[in-house]
C-alpha cells in the first residue's frame, strides 16, 4: 500500500474509531507498570458516567474475577463515547491529511503483539491444564440441575485433558503466527475463529468474560480488514489476487532489521518461554500428594454456638475437600440451597485448616481457622469460628462410587452408542 494513497472519509473515521476504541481498551500494554494509575483514572471516569448517565451515586463493585460488572459496562460506555467524539474531532483536525499509513502500521504491530500475548496466556493454561482443572468429587456428587451454566461448561472442559490441550495448542499456534508479519493474516483468521467460539460460549453459558472476548474478536477483525478484499477473492469468488502491499518503514536500515529480531526474541522469551515455565511449575501441584482428609463427606452432626438445629439454614450437610487442577478447594452444601466454595491451606503438623472465601473481593483477606482431627480414616472432626459463631462439625466419608463419567474412558470401537 503506497504511503501516498488517499484515504476516504469512511476509511479515516473507521481508523480513528478503531484506534481510540481498541487503544483505550488495552492500554497500557506493554507498559504494565502504569496499570495501577490507569485503574485509578478509569475508576474516576466510571463513577462520573454512572452518576451522570444512570444516577448511580457510586459503583461499589470494582473489577474482580468477573469482567462483566457494572463497572466494566460503564467503562465500555465511556470508551465508546470518547472514541466517537474523538473520531469526529480527529477528522476535523486532520481533514487535509491524505492518510495515516505510518500510524496504522505501528498500531497494527501493537495489536498483533497484544493479541499474541493474550492467546499465549490463555493457551498455556489449557495445555497444562490449569484453567479448567479436573472434575472434582463435588462435581461428581452434585446434581446436574444444581450446576450454573458456567459450572456446566467448566465441567465439560475439565472432563477431557486432551481436549483442553488441543484447544490451548490452537490458541498458542494462532498467537505465534501473529508475531510474524508474513503469517499475520493466517494467525488473525485462526485467532478470529477461536475467539468467535470463545465469545459464543461466554454468551450462551453466562461466563463473565463477554466484554473482553468480544473486544479480542474485534481486534482480529481489524487485523483482517486490510485483507478483506483479497480473502474474498481467494476464498469466495475463486479468483486470483495479488500479494499484500505494505508501507516501508526504515527500509534498508540495519538497526531496524536486527532490532526487530531482538525484540521478537525478547517477546517470545517473556511470553512464550517464561509463560511455559510458570505454567509448567504451577502444574506440578496437580499431582502433589494429598492428605488423608481429602474426600467427600456427609455431615453427621453440626453445631453452631453449641446448639444442634435441624432447621438451621446454615447447617452443613455435605463437605467436599478436593483439588481442582493445581488448586485446593473446599465445598460445602445443604438442601436449603447453600453452595459455598472456599480456598484452603492445610497445616498437617498442627492439624489446622485455614479457609478464605473464594468469592470474596481481593481486598478481603479474612481467614477462617479450624482445627481438625481424624478418629479414624473415615471420620473427620472440624472445630473453629465463622465470624462470631462457634462451629463444630462431625462427618463421615461417603462411600466410593464408580461414576460412569470417570470410568467409561475412550473407545475406538463402539458397536452401539453408549449414551446414558
TrEMBL record:
The chain crosses the membrane at residues 13-34, 73-93, 105-125, 162-180, 187-205, 211-237, 258-277. The keyword Ribonucleoprotein does not apply. The keyword Membrane applies. Keywords: Membrane, Transmembrane, Transmembrane helix. This is DoxX family protein.
